[in-house]
Amino acid sequence: xxxxxxxxxxxxxxxxxxxxxxxxIGYTMVYGILRLINFAHGDIMMMGCFFAFYGIFMFSxxxxxxxxxxxxxxxxxxxxxxxxxxxxxxxxxxISALITAIGVSFLLxxxxxxxxxxxxxxxxxxxxxxxxxxxxxxxxxxxxxWTPLVTLLLLxxxxxxxxxxxxxxxxxxxxxxxxxxxxxxxxxxxxxxxxFAIGSAVAAAGGxxxxxxxxxxxxxxxxxxxxxxFVAAVLGGIGNVTGxxxxxxxxxFAEIFLVAINPDLAGYRDAIAxxxxxxxxxxxxxxxxxxxxxx
Length: 295
Fold this sequence. Notes:
By secondary structure, the chain is mainly alpha-helical. It has a domain at about 25-220. It contains 12 helices and 4 strands; from the N terminus they run H-H-H-H-E-H-E-E-H-H-H-H-E-H-H-H. The chain has helices spanning about 5-35, 40-55, 65-85, 95-115, 125-130, 140-165, 165-175, 180-185, 190-215, 225-235, 240-260, 270-285; strands at about 120, 130-135, 140, 215. The strands form 2 sheets. It has a two-stranded antiparallel sheet with strand order 1-4. Strand 2 and strand 3 (about 140) form a beta hairpin.
């Protein structure tokens, strides 16, 4: 593999891994606080893409206004899902919350099929993101460079919220002991709602970037990215924000470079991700950066 091809694959892997990591952050934030695997996360991502799509084509908004409004609406959707589906089963056995998450996922997918239709729709890409650049003989879209930059900015924002704000301090307290945190006067429901809002907003941002990378959307588009983001979260250490990003990058590099080394594996890209999940659960269930938590 010559240097030009190596650099090309590196850029592809960095962009794909950043997307996985960005979507995985939402998984890991919710799990870190509630010990709930929100299997509807990929479908929330899908809803964000459709909000952006209809903002542009139905309401004739500019792309940046549509994207911002879509992220806000997706955050509101996350709060509504928490309030309507997860809050009523918060004190129930964990299996009830898990079944609820699967039910919410199916609900969003089927509502999407009814409201948006099952036919794939072309997703717009701003002109500057579709511009082709050339560096050292490597040609790549501007989107491939902007994706890691946006991901880095969002990661920095989330780390600031979690470790430098009162809300973040409350999130970390709830993750250790929800009942004691409630007795200390913290409005647990409000903090959990904020967590869902941030996780859903980040999912929408990741979904919009995903839709611009693979420019078509449909109501089932969130299934595979959502599952791979879950793999990334587990790989990095579910519950650890930095670990989720690291897991996403590792997964992206593994997929791209294994296929680059052996093109015959191109049809097994999804299988590579799930094989990594099996291996990490067998040999290091807490993930690369995760910690063992008490039951």
